[in-house]
Amino acid sequence: MRKSVTLAYVLWFFLGYLGFHRMYCGRVTSGVAMLCCSVVGLFTSPFLLGHILFFIVGIWWLVDLFLTARMAM
Questions:
Q1: Sign of torsion over alpha carbons 30, 33, 35, 38
Q2: How many domains does the chain have?
Q3: Coil, helix or strand for 1?
Q4: Helix ranges restricted to H, the chain
Q5: Which residue range(s) make up the domain with 55?
Q6: In this predicted model, what pLDDT tens digit does every residue of 1-40 receive, in sequence order?
């Protein structure tokens, strides 16, 4: 089932670090993984692990800029 590409990009922009755009597009497992990495990164941000997780999720979020349109189809 086709999803709205516009809504997928709105979710990507505002809630992308939490993986909601992936969950909307039907990629629930990777969306939950993105959500978990962000939450764990938030709680471990005083330590090096939190910064590493935020960096990984940030790169993932930027790559999704190019993948979201294809995921929504």
A1: negative
A2: 1
A3: coil
A4: 5-15, 20-24, 28-43, 48-72
A5: 5-72
A6: 789 999 999 999 999 999 999 999 999 999 999 999 999 9
